[in-house]
Amino acid sequence: MSTADAPVGEAEAHALFADLAAEKALVLAISGGPDSTALLYLAARWRAGGRTGPRLVAVTIDHGLRPEARREAATVKRLCEKLGVEHRTMRWTGVKPSTGIQEAARVARYRLLSAAARRAKAGCILTAHTLDDQAETVFFRVARGSGLAGLCGMARNVRIDDLTGEAGRPRDTIRSPRLAVERDTGAAMGRSGDDVMLVRPLLDLPKARLIVTLREAAIDYAHDPSNVDPRYARARIRKLMPALAIEGLTAQRLVRLARRVQRSEAAHEAVVNWAASRLGWGTDSRKLTLDRTNWASIPAEIALRLLGRAIGMVGNEGPVEFGKLEALVNALGAALTDGTPRFCRTLAGAMVSLRDDCIVIEQAPARRFRLRERDLGGKEARNA
Questions:
Q1: Distances (CA, A) of 291 to 242, 257, 281, 357, 358
Q2: What is the span of the domain harbouring residue 354?
Q3: Are residues 284 and 220 in the same domain?
Q4: Which of 20, 105, 352, 361 could form a disulfide with 288 if both were Cys (CB 3.0 to 4.6 A apart)?
Q5: What's 181's domain CATH number?
Q6: CA gap 169, 175 in Å, rounded
Q7: Which of 134, 127, 166 minimizes the C-alpha distance to 31?
Q8: Do 162 and 291 fall within a single domain?
């Protein structure tokens, strides 16, 4: 049997979870499908092999979208009892959206998992994203014209709150400096205070190896029909992958691309730090100023990231959409080149303007909605 087809052995499993050994508790996101069932089995085997280690709490989210979900949750519970792992089922209740259901379900899932982690006093939530998922993510973002940050794919460790606010990120975004790049931070998990981290320990393993592992252990798993439903982009991309692999665009090569972009991303962020200091960044998070005289000497990509970082810090309307940021930076560059005396644009709750020798980024004024005559009609409109 080749390495690509081999089950995950005990030593390999130990390495997957080694940096989590000091945690008090871990929440495992277990749907009952092959990937998450393998995560449950491997984590339980790892924990059973040590005298001390974190308490494991498996959580199954019932989104209320499929009648089979209750039965699958019950199956997961029985397997947890067999493996000696606590289990909880949480349900997404309330009215479901008529569009964007997968994205909404994803946000709801992360929020429920976050609540479960805080209840269990767990610092980390483990999900079963695999190498195949990583490849699909990179391809998905390429297809949607992502910037470099999007092509990094998924990081092994990321703050769960970043995902509940930006889950899936269908549009590429620029985040504040603390969130600028999802980095693998090792045992410390990059966590501070009450932060809960989402950890993807299986991210370097292909799905085929997980299935072989379950088969060898005689553990069954569920099949979610939405994974092959052509109404969803992920399912359509998944169907394309075998044909792309024939042409050389394998999952492994897409993941290799992501790793190379991650390396480039780290270098870019270091240069952004340098540029911020050169342009006199300042420390007031409500208002930042940049020296406009040196702006033209900053490489375009660094200028883009620098302004995106500033807007992410000052703005209060969520993540900065990449395409809109590009348009703003181009307009700012044109204004500086043409000597335009007045320039003022808003994006993501921040206002960017030119004043004297500075580019100023500050919180945008509150939006005002003016009632129009045709909306109110006649006298009421004139008196409004």
A1: 51, 35, 8, 6, 5
A2: 279-363
A3: no
A4: 361
A5: 3.40.50.620
A6: 11
A7: 127
A8: no
